[in-house]
Amino acid sequence: MWKYEKRLQYPINIKKKDLRMAKAILTQYGGANGELAAALRYLDQRYTMPDDRGKALLTDIGTEELSHVEMISTMVYQLTKDASVAELKAAGLDDYYSEHGKDLYPVNASGVPFTVTYFAAVGDPIANLSENMAAEQKARAVYENLIDLATDEDVIGPLLWLRQREIVHFNRFKELYDYYNEKYNSKIEPRNNI
Amino acid sequence: MNNYNYLTNNYPPQPSDPIHFTPLPQINLMPNKNMQLFTPKEALDRGNLFANLYDPYKNYQPVALTGKNEKEKLYLDFIRMAFAAHELNLYLDNFPNDQSMIQLFNDYRQKSDTLKNQYEQKYGPIDISSNALNTTPFAWVDQKWPWEGGI
Known about the structure:
The complex is a heterodimer. Chain A has 8 helices and no strands. By secondary structure, chain A is mostly helical.
Protein backbone atom coordinates (compact mmCIF):
# COMPACT_ATOMS: atom_id res chain seq x y z
CA MET A 1 0.00 0.00 0.00
CA TRP A 2 1.02 3.62 -0.30
CA LYS A 3 1.22 6.51 2.12
CA TYR A 4 0.83 10.09 0.93
CA GLU A 5 3.27 12.80 1.98
CA LYS A 6 1.89 16.29 1.71
CA ARG A 7 4.95 17.70 -0.05
CA LEU A 8 6.71 17.65 -3.41
CA GLN A 9 9.98 15.77 -3.85
CA TYR A 10 11.45 19.06 -5.14
CA PRO A 11 9.84 22.49 -4.57
CA ILE A 12 7.87 24.07 -7.45
CA ASN A 13 6.80 27.69 -7.26
CA ILE A 14 5.86 29.08 -10.69
CA LYS A 15 4.51 32.61 -10.45
CA LYS A 16 3.97 33.45 -14.14
CA LYS A 17 1.29 31.81 -16.30
CA ASP A 18 2.48 30.34 -19.60
CA LEU A 19 -0.14 28.33 -21.43
CA ARG A 20 2.00 27.19 -24.33
CA MET A 21 4.59 25.86 -21.88
CA ALA A 22 1.83 24.14 -19.90
CA LYS A 23 0.63 22.41 -23.08
CA ALA A 24 4.19 21.21 -23.79
CA ILE A 25 4.90 20.05 -20.23
CA LEU A 26 1.59 18.15 -20.07
CA THR A 27 3.21 15.58 -22.37
CA GLN A 28 5.37 14.42 -19.45
CA TYR A 29 2.11 13.47 -17.73
CA GLY A 30 0.09 11.91 -20.55
CA GLY A 31 2.66 11.32 -23.30
CA ALA A 32 4.46 8.13 -24.37
CA ASN A 33 7.62 8.99 -22.43
CA GLY A 34 5.88 10.62 -19.48
CA GLU A 35 5.89 10.00 -15.75
CA LEU A 36 2.50 8.23 -15.65
CA ALA A 37 3.67 5.62 -18.15
CA ALA A 38 6.91 5.24 -16.15
CA ALA A 39 5.12 4.69 -12.85
CA LEU A 40 2.73 2.10 -14.32
CA ARG A 41 5.49 0.41 -16.32
CA TYR A 42 7.68 -0.27 -13.26
CA LEU A 43 4.86 -1.07 -10.85
CA ASP A 44 3.35 -3.57 -13.34
CA GLN A 45 6.70 -5.25 -14.04
CA ARG A 46 7.77 -5.70 -10.42
CA TYR A 47 5.62 -8.75 -9.56
CA THR A 48 7.61 -11.22 -11.65
CA MET A 49 11.14 -9.92 -11.09
CA PRO A 50 13.30 -12.99 -10.49
CA ASP A 51 14.72 -11.88 -7.14
CA ASP A 52 14.14 -9.46 -4.28
CA ARG A 53 16.52 -6.83 -5.65
CA GLY A 54 14.43 -6.39 -8.76
CA LYS A 55 11.18 -6.31 -6.77
CA ALA A 56 12.66 -3.66 -4.47
CA LEU A 57 14.13 -1.45 -7.22
CA LEU A 58 11.00 -1.47 -9.40
CA THR A 59 8.76 -0.77 -6.39
CA ASP A 60 10.94 2.11 -5.21
CA ILE A 61 11.50 3.75 -8.60
CA GLY A 62 7.82 3.20 -9.55
CA THR A 63 6.84 4.96 -6.33
CA GLU A 64 9.18 7.85 -7.05
CA GLU A 65 7.62 8.20 -10.51
CA LEU A 66 4.22 8.72 -8.86
CA SER A 67 5.74 11.72 -7.08
CA HIS A 68 7.00 12.97 -10.46
CA VAL A 69 3.44 12.73 -11.82
CA GLU A 70 2.54 15.09 -8.96
CA MET A 71 5.42 17.45 -9.86
CA ILE A 72 4.43 17.62 -13.55
CA SER A 73 0.77 18.10 -12.59
CA THR A 74 1.81 20.90 -10.21
CA MET A 75 3.71 22.66 -13.00
CA VAL A 76 0.72 22.46 -15.37
CA TYR A 77 -1.65 23.65 -12.62
CA GLN A 78 0.52 26.62 -11.67
CA LEU A 79 1.12 27.61 -15.32
CA THR A 80 -2.64 27.62 -16.10
CA LYS A 81 -4.48 28.57 -12.90
CA ASP A 82 -4.72 32.32 -13.61
CA ALA A 83 -5.57 32.00 -17.31
CA SER A 84 -8.81 33.36 -18.78
CA VAL A 85 -10.86 31.37 -21.29
CA ALA A 86 -9.74 33.76 -24.03
CA GLU A 87 -6.11 33.11 -23.17
CA LEU A 88 -6.65 29.33 -23.15
CA LYS A 89 -8.28 29.65 -26.58
CA ALA A 90 -5.41 31.70 -27.95
CA ALA A 91 -2.91 29.08 -26.75
CA GLY A 92 -4.80 26.27 -28.49
CA LEU A 93 -6.14 24.83 -25.24
CA ASP A 94 -9.84 25.34 -26.10
CA ASP A 95 -10.25 21.66 -27.04
CA TYR A 96 -8.73 20.64 -23.72
CA TYR A 97 -10.82 23.18 -21.79
CA SER A 98 -14.10 22.01 -23.36
CA GLU A 99 -13.65 18.46 -22.02
CA HIS A 100 -11.62 18.99 -18.85
CA GLY A 101 -11.80 22.61 -17.72
CA LYS A 102 -8.64 23.25 -15.75
CA ASP A 103 -8.51 19.73 -14.29
CA LEU A 104 -5.44 17.63 -14.89
CA TYR A 105 -6.02 15.01 -17.58
CA PRO A 106 -3.26 12.88 -19.16
CA VAL A 107 -2.80 13.86 -22.80
CA ASN A 108 0.35 14.47 -24.82
CA ALA A 109 1.49 17.83 -26.20
CA SER A 110 -0.75 17.33 -29.25
CA GLY A 111 -3.81 16.52 -27.11
CA VAL A 112 -3.80 12.75 -27.71
CA PRO A 113 -5.11 10.95 -24.59
CA PHE A 114 -2.85 8.63 -22.63
CA THR A 115 -2.93 4.96 -23.61
CA VAL A 116 -1.38 1.96 -21.87
CA THR A 117 0.08 0.86 -25.20
CA TYR A 118 2.81 3.42 -24.41
CA PHE A 119 4.57 0.87 -22.23
CA ALA A 120 5.30 -2.82 -22.12
CA ALA A 121 5.46 -5.50 -19.46
CA VAL A 122 6.38 -8.70 -21.28
CA GLY A 123 7.19 -11.05 -18.39
CA ASP A 124 10.90 -11.24 -19.15
CA PRO A 125 13.23 -9.36 -16.77
CA ILE A 126 15.96 -8.68 -19.35
CA ALA A 127 13.44 -7.39 -21.91
CA ASN A 128 11.60 -5.35 -19.27
CA LEU A 129 14.78 -3.77 -17.93
CA SER A 130 15.94 -2.94 -21.47
CA GLU A 131 12.59 -1.22 -22.03
CA ASN A 132 13.03 0.71 -18.78
CA MET A 133 16.54 1.87 -19.70
CA ALA A 134 15.25 3.12 -23.08
CA ALA A 135 12.28 4.79 -21.39
CA GLU A 136 14.52 6.71 -19.01
CA GLN A 137 16.69 7.91 -21.92
CA LYS A 138 13.64 8.98 -23.94
CA ALA A 139 12.23 10.86 -20.95
CA ARG A 140 15.61 12.58 -20.49
CA ALA A 141 15.54 13.68 -24.15
CA VAL A 142 11.98 15.03 -23.77
CA TYR A 143 13.03 17.01 -20.69
CA GLU A 144 15.87 18.51 -22.73
CA ASN A 145 13.41 19.57 -25.46
CA LEU A 146 11.20 21.14 -22.77
CA ILE A 147 14.17 22.97 -21.20
CA ASP A 148 15.04 24.33 -24.67
CA LEU A 149 11.47 25.66 -24.97
CA ALA A 150 11.31 27.16 -21.46
CA THR A 151 12.22 30.75 -20.62
CA ASP A 152 11.17 31.08 -16.96
CA GLU A 153 13.71 30.07 -14.27
CA ASP A 154 10.87 28.77 -12.09
CA VAL A 155 10.06 26.29 -14.87
CA ILE A 156 13.62 25.42 -15.92
CA GLY A 157 14.73 24.50 -12.36
CA PRO A 158 12.26 21.63 -11.84
CA LEU A 159 12.74 20.42 -15.45
CA LEU A 160 16.53 20.21 -14.94
CA TRP A 161 15.90 18.34 -11.71
CA LEU A 162 13.50 15.83 -13.26
CA ARG A 163 15.92 15.30 -16.16
CA GLN A 164 18.65 14.39 -13.69
CA ARG A 165 16.38 11.78 -12.06
CA GLU A 166 16.07 10.04 -15.43
CA ILE A 167 19.87 9.73 -15.51
CA VAL A 168 20.04 8.22 -12.02
CA HIS A 169 17.18 5.80 -12.75
CA PHE A 170 18.77 4.75 -16.05
CA ASN A 171 21.97 3.84 -14.19
CA ARG A 172 20.12 1.88 -11.50
CA PHE A 173 18.22 -0.11 -14.13
CA LYS A 174 21.46 -0.72 -16.03
CA GLU A 175 23.15 -2.06 -12.88
CA LEU A 176 20.27 -4.47 -12.37
CA TYR A 177 20.25 -5.40 -16.06
CA ASP A 178 24.00 -6.20 -15.96
CA TYR A 179 23.54 -8.16 -12.74
CA TYR A 180 20.73 -10.32 -14.17
CA ASN A 181 22.59 -10.80 -17.41
CA GLU A 182 25.57 -12.20 -15.52
CA LYS A 183 23.46 -14.15 -13.07
CA TYR A 184 21.18 -15.89 -15.55
CA ASN A 185 22.80 -15.79 -18.96
CA SER A 186 26.55 -16.22 -18.42
CA LYS A 187 26.38 -19.93 -17.67
CA ILE A 188 24.45 -20.78 -20.81
CA GLU A 189 26.43 -22.45 -23.54
CA PRO A 190 26.24 -20.67 -26.88
CA ARG A 191 24.07 -22.55 -29.34
CA ASN A 192 26.00 -24.44 -31.95
CA ASN A 193 25.28 -24.87 -35.63
CA ILE A 194 22.88 -22.03 -36.12
CA MET B 1 30.12 -22.34 -36.14
CA ASN B 2 29.25 -20.82 -32.79
CA ASN B 3 26.95 -17.86 -32.76
CA TYR B 4 27.64 -16.12 -29.49
CA ASN B 5 24.94 -13.56 -30.08
CA TYR B 6 22.17 -16.06 -29.85
CA LEU B 7 21.56 -16.93 -26.20
CA THR B 8 18.35 -18.37 -24.85
CA ASN B 9 17.11 -16.92 -21.62
CA ASN B 10 17.32 -19.21 -18.66
CA TYR B 11 15.43 -17.61 -15.84
CA PRO B 12 14.74 -19.89 -12.91
CA PRO B 13 11.18 -21.09 -12.45
CA GLN B 14 9.08 -18.86 -10.21
CA PRO B 15 7.96 -19.78 -6.67
CA SER B 16 4.42 -20.24 -8.01
CA ASP B 17 5.69 -23.48 -9.54
CA PRO B 18 6.68 -25.46 -6.40
CA ILE B 19 7.77 -28.58 -8.24
CA HIS B 20 10.49 -26.90 -10.23
CA PHE B 21 11.49 -24.06 -7.94
CA THR B 22 15.15 -23.98 -7.01
CA PRO B 23 16.90 -21.27 -4.99
CA LEU B 24 18.72 -18.63 -7.03
CA PRO B 25 22.49 -18.80 -7.27
CA GLN B 26 24.29 -16.17 -5.19
CA ILE B 27 26.20 -13.59 -7.22
CA ASN B 28 27.12 -10.28 -5.69
CA LEU B 29 28.36 -7.53 -7.95
CA MET B 30 30.84 -5.26 -6.22
CA PRO B 31 29.73 -1.65 -5.89
CA ASN B 32 31.83 0.96 -7.62
CA LYS B 33 34.52 1.86 -5.08
CA ASN B 34 35.29 5.13 -6.85
CA MET B 35 31.84 6.38 -5.98
CA GLN B 36 31.81 10.04 -4.92
CA LEU B 37 28.79 11.43 -3.13
CA PHE B 38 27.47 14.99 -3.02
CA THR B 39 26.36 16.45 0.30
CA PRO B 40 22.57 16.26 0.92
CA LYS B 41 22.28 19.99 0.02
CA GLU B 42 24.25 19.64 -3.21
CA ALA B 43 22.31 16.47 -4.01
CA LEU B 44 18.84 18.03 -3.65
CA ASP B 45 19.86 21.06 -5.72
CA ARG B 46 21.04 18.76 -8.52
CA GLY B 47 18.57 15.89 -8.26
CA ASN B 48 21.46 13.45 -7.88
CA LEU B 49 23.46 12.26 -4.84
CA PHE B 50 26.06 10.45 -6.94
CA ALA B 51 28.77 12.76 -8.29
CA ASN B 52 30.01 10.02 -10.66
CA LEU B 53 26.54 9.88 -12.28
CA TYR B 54 25.94 13.64 -12.38
CA ASP B 55 25.42 14.87 -15.93
CA PRO B 56 24.52 18.57 -16.37
CA TYR B 57 22.61 19.81 -19.43
CA LYS B 58 24.40 22.35 -21.64
CA ASN B 59 25.49 25.31 -19.49
CA TYR B 60 22.48 25.22 -17.20
CA GLN B 61 23.38 25.47 -13.51
CA PRO B 62 21.28 23.81 -10.82
CA VAL B 63 19.22 26.16 -8.67
CA ALA B 64 20.70 26.68 -5.17
CA LEU B 65 17.59 26.28 -3.02
CA THR B 66 17.44 28.64 -0.02
CA GLY B 67 14.76 29.29 2.57
CA LYS B 68 13.48 32.82 3.13
CA ASN B 69 12.51 32.19 6.76
CA GLU B 70 12.87 29.69 9.58
CA LYS B 71 9.99 27.56 8.31
CA GLU B 72 11.41 27.24 4.80
CA LYS B 73 14.94 26.57 6.10
CA LEU B 74 13.74 23.77 8.36
CA TYR B 75 11.65 22.32 5.52
CA LEU B 76 14.62 22.35 3.13
CA ASP B 77 16.85 20.69 5.75
CA PHE B 78 14.24 17.93 6.05
CA ILE B 79 13.74 17.31 2.31
CA ARG B 80 17.52 17.33 1.72
CA MET B 81 17.97 14.48 4.20
CA ALA B 82 14.89 12.68 2.87
CA PHE B 83 16.23 12.90 -0.70
CA ALA B 84 19.72 11.70 0.25
CA ALA B 85 18.19 8.73 2.10
CA HIS B 86 15.97 7.95 -0.91
CA GLU B 87 18.96 7.98 -3.27
CA LEU B 88 20.79 5.50 -1.03
CA ASN B 89 17.62 3.40 -0.81
CA LEU B 90 17.65 2.95 -4.62
CA TYR B 91 21.39 2.22 -4.55
CA LEU B 92 21.03 -0.35 -1.76
CA ASP B 93 18.26 -2.15 -3.68
CA ASN B 94 21.01 -3.11 -6.14
CA PHE B 95 23.88 -3.43 -3.62
CA PRO B 96 22.27 -4.71 -0.40
CA ASN B 97 25.62 -5.81 1.06
CA ASP B 98 27.34 -2.42 1.01
CA GLN B 99 27.73 -1.91 4.76
CA SER B 100 29.13 1.63 4.68
CA MET B 101 26.21 2.80 2.51
CA ILE B 102 23.72 1.10 4.86
CA GLN B 103 25.30 3.10 7.68
CA LEU B 104 25.05 6.34 5.72
CA PHE B 105 21.46 5.55 4.69
CA ASN B 106 20.49 5.14 8.35
CA ASP B 107 22.28 8.34 9.31
CA TYR B 108 20.34 10.35 6.69
CA ARG B 109 17.09 8.51 7.46
CA GLN B 110 17.33 9.33 11.18
CA LYS B 111 18.14 12.98 10.47
CA SER B 112 15.25 13.15 8.02
CA ASP B 113 12.84 11.66 10.61
CA THR B 114 14.00 14.06 13.33
CA LEU B 115 13.73 17.14 11.10
CA LYS B 116 10.31 16.02 9.84
CA ASN B 117 9.03 15.70 13.42
CA GLN B 118 10.41 19.13 14.30
CA TYR B 119 8.76 20.66 11.25
CA GLU B 120 5.42 18.98 11.92
CA GLN B 121 5.35 20.10 15.58
CA LYS B 122 5.85 23.72 14.52
CA TYR B 123 4.06 24.00 11.19
CA GLY B 124 1.65 21.09 10.78
CA PRO B 125 1.56 17.49 9.55
CA ILE B 126 3.36 16.20 6.45
CA ASP B 127 1.86 12.73 6.61
CA ILE B 128 -1.12 11.13 8.30
CA SER B 129 0.92 9.35 11.02
CA SER B 130 2.27 12.65 12.33
CA ASN B 131 2.05 13.51 16.05
CA ALA B 132 0.77 16.93 15.00
CA LEU B 133 -2.77 15.72 14.24
CA ASN B 134 -4.37 16.07 17.69
CA THR B 135 -5.79 19.58 17.25
CA THR B 136 -9.28 20.82 16.33
CA PRO B 137 -9.95 21.56 13.54
CA PHE B 138 -8.18 18.53 12.09
CA ALA B 139 -4.78 19.85 10.99
CA TRP B 140 -4.53 17.56 7.95
CA VAL B 141 -7.13 19.58 6.01
CA ASP B 142 -5.89 22.88 7.34
CA GLN B 143 -2.58 23.22 5.51
CA LYS B 144 -1.52 24.29 2.04
CA TRP B 145 -1.42 21.48 -0.52
CA PRO B 146 1.83 20.71 -2.35
CA TRP B 147 0.70 22.10 -5.72
CA GLU B 148 -0.26 25.46 -4.25
CA GLY B 149 3.28 26.89 -4.43
CA GLY B 150 5.83 28.04 -1.89
CA ILE B 151 8.65 25.93 -0.55
